Sequence to fold (772 residues):
Amino acid sequence: MSIITPDHRFDDVESVRDLLRGVEYLADDGIASVVFLADRLQKPILVEGPAGTGKTQLAKSVAEMIGARLIRLQCYEGLDEAKALYEWNYKKQLLRIQAERASNTAEEWDDLHDDLFSDEFLMTRPLLEAIRADDPVVLLIDEIDRVEVETEALLLEILSDYQVSIPELGTVEATQIPLVFLTSNNTRELSEALKRRCLFLHIDYPEMDREKEIVITKVEGVTEHLADQIARIVRSIRQLELKKSPSVSETLDWARTLVLLGIDSIDADQAKETLHILLKYQTDIEKTSKELSD
Amino acid sequence: MLDLLSGFIVELRRAGLPVALTESLDSMEAMTHIPIEDRDAFKYALATTLVKNESHWKAFETVFEVYFSHRGPQYKVGDTSADTSELEDWLQEQMDQMQQQGEGSGGGGDMTPEQLAEMLYRAMMNGDEAMMRAMARAAVTKFAGMEPGRPVGGTYYLYRTLRNLDLEAMMERLVAESEESAPDGFTDLERKLEREEYEHRIDDLKKEIEAEIRRRLVADRGAEAMAKTLRKPLPEDVDFMHASRDEMAAIRKAIQPLTRKLAARLARKRRHKRRGALDFRATVRASLSYGGVPAEPKFKHPRPNKPELIVVADISGSVAAFARFTLHLVYALSSQFSKVRSFVFIDGIDEVTHMFQGEEDITRAVHRVNTEADVIWVDGHSDYGHAFEVFWDKWGHEINSKSTVIFLGDARNNYHATNAWVVKESRKRARHVFWLNPEPRSYWDTGDSVITEYATHCDGVFECRNLRQLERFVDHLA
Fold:
């Protein structure tokens, strides 16, 4: 493997955490060590966890922190090569053929046919773009669990060897090894082959103290007392059996609302009135407000 | 180091975790980048390279704790007098400090249980983790009465320790005291939150005590032996029939993606056969190979046909635990398939489709099924024969070539007539007929089990006692 070894981006786990804190992402020990290792081992990170716990944000924050461009590939059912890796610009190719038609001699045909599958007609899609970029990039493959198992295979080459094989062109090798993040909401089991190539990181709802800290850093004008109350209430709500537990982003929305309403200290009624920001299902809201008033 | 790591990986594999060779190589490489003395970083580095499934985390943690357990003199079993002196000194120091603050009780010398409880209480109040850990250690030394070489499980020691601590009374005291200290009392919400906070801390303490006992047991019996006794089945291997509450919750969480998979598998078979409308873009693209002549038309994949599912589930006492799981499965299925008809039976049979539809709360749906469904005909003992006969008379004509019929049950028929012809006839009409049996295969056809009589008429009969087997069934459909 001809892998260009870049200088390591980070010195140690601690520095990763400090840098992330610098861009307002509060990482716990697990997150920081995995990001650090991903850089050292040059492996992609597979981030899994419930929705709204900051999986995508992690990639964005890492990009911001190392000053790299974020290239994002949003996955969906039916995603194929042409949209993920590369595509031949067939319209341009057709035009080229037609332009040649007028004077169609054997010699020119040879030229044309060498020409037709060259860089000029190649349209790069996120994955190819990420490994061919000259500037530093972070590649984010979002919600990988949405593509079919068969499509996953398309990623394997780029994830393990950082190269893309194009039948007409040959193999395109990486000019750099980007940091790669794959996120999954775990709606289905990913294939073993994919998992094997990645470092695994599970991001769960944060501990109460960390959540409180997140609220304080992200929400302007929140008092420590309020943040503490918010974190406690959210933790207590997460212990209920709900269709959808409140995520970190919803906690933040809720905190912002409370600040806007000028509330310094929540009582049960205020909490109930603003519950719809935290919870999105009517049954959940009913269940929780009953629980809060007990 | 290498030996230590490969030993660890062997232990992980023994616990059932699938660790591939490349993964173990990764973990070894990761070690070269991580300072070994940083225990947390070390643990996360191992986890991220070796554990690729969140539900395996617990198993990993147990093995890690045992294998890389702290090994120091303070964890010796027995000889309490000599080894704990250091700890006692430290505690004494703390006590003295407290006395200086004018808060502690009088008296020095040995720690009495009351003093220990008082110390613990202070630690809980302040939520001081280091202190709590030390207290857990002291409590185990004091109360667990561990003796070297005694063949008792950890739970016994845990029970002894906790009994002596009386955490419940402490909890009440904590809440009462913190309420007193608040300037203008608590609102209801605050009191509830405060209580939850202390519950949380007490839980932490319990975990700490458990870990402490485990460490000592490891020191006494060696990592090998302990790893073996602590080995628990992974969530996907937990038997539905004997799952604890926590395990059931984990299983429930795993069912949802599985049903989605099932839906996809059943739909895909059809997708490959038929062709849909012309795909213009792909056709033009393909025409390039023929100099712009659209010689090879490309077609879109047709919209997948949603198959119909008919689930017939036994909910009698003999499969009670399985039935609970079954109902969850049915509930999850009905959110994935456009048409799911569900039936439950004991000796009578009733349709419960409407109870699942539009019901957002699964526990309520299950409760309704258990209370409202009319499934008892004579005595409330399983009678597959009668139930099937009624099923055929009432609903048999609704089975058509699109439907897949899944029977769930142990086929323990209490020596009634089997009426296996119902299954046979169903198969003639339906696309597939499957049977999922929650009993281990070796029990089949013993006693009043008549599974084979039904099995001959099914497309497949599957032992389905844990998630892994359920997954295998889903895979089989592909």
Remarks:
- Chain A is about 50% helix and 15% strand.
- The radius of gyration of chain A is 24 Å.
